[in-house]
Design a protein that fits this description.
This protein is 32% helix and 19% strand. By secondary structure, it is of the alpha/beta class.
């Protein structure tokens, strides 16, 4: 394989330096991107025993925080505009389903008021999100 009297030999070892460089870059990308993958508003959910809900379409997530703030997905919504927003979101959807995440310290009456507004917006399925018991 060598010609011209050159004493160089072929190197049969794998050079792992480029592999390590690529892996470190990927590690940094995932470390930066991982916190952005978590979605939603942080709430302290009540714990209960319940079975999972099977859905066809991606349901809309509505969150109520301890301070009685209402969020559709991650966007804050005033309570008096909630019905209108939900109607607009679901006007072209076949499956009208909302999942409600309410902090366990929110007064029961406020949660019921929000649930009534969701039902008045024409939602046929309303589910409650809870944490499983330990």
């Amino acid at each position: 394989m060598n010609s011209g009297g050159n004493n160089r030999r072929l190197m049969s070892e794998i050079n792992v330096t480029p592999l390590v460089d690529v892996m470190l870059v990927l590690l940094i990308i995932f470390m930066v991107a991982a916190p952005m993958m978590t979605q939603g508003v942080d709430v302290n959910l009540p714990k209960t025993v319940a079975r999972n809900i099977k859905t066809v379409d991606e349901p809309l997530m509505l969150t109520i925080t301890r301070k009685k703030e209402v969020f559709l997905e991650n966007h804050p919504v005033r309570l008096d505009r909630l019905e209108l927003k939900i109607k607009k979101i679901f006007e072209n959807r076949r499956e009208k389903e909302v999942l409600l995440r309410a902090d366990k310290d929110v007064p029961y009456g406020f949660v019921i008021d929000v649930m009534a507004r969701i039902k008045n917006a024409g939602i046929s399925k309303l589910g409650m999100v809870t944490e499983p018991l330990d």
